[in-house]
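Run log // design_07
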């Protein structure tokens, strides 16, 4: 489970996907498989969460990595490049963005 804290040294990545309700479940299945079979086993992976909106037109993914380089190395693997090409076919757009945690409120 991701731990959000202002003083952590982790790399936070939030990826948003835009799709149609007709491809939402296929995309979620592809993302679940990517995390279960590959991403979660990569060096530096800490945790992730997948979220879908009620209209099934957007998926948000929150992931944490030990270092920025760990996330980038995972993206550059042949397997993830192939998976991202397949994921791209299921959605209109997707964009991973690296963030720093500025503040947390409980």
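design_07 sequence
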């Amino acid at each position: 489970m991701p731990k959000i804290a202002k003083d952590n040294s982790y790399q936070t990545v939030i990826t948003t996907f835009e799709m149609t309700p007709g491809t939402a479940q296929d995309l979620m299945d592809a993302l679940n498989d990517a995390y279960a079979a590959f991403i979660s086993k990569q060096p530096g992976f800490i945790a992730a969460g997948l979220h879908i909106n009620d209209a099934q037109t957007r998926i948000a993914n929150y992931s944490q990595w030990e270092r920025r380089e760990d996330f980038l190395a995972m993206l550059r693997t042949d397997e993830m490049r192939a998976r991202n090409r397949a994921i791209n076919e299921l959605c209109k757009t997707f964009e991973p963005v690296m963030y720093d945690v500025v503040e947390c409120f409980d």
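Residues 4 and 104 are 7 Å apart (CA to CA).
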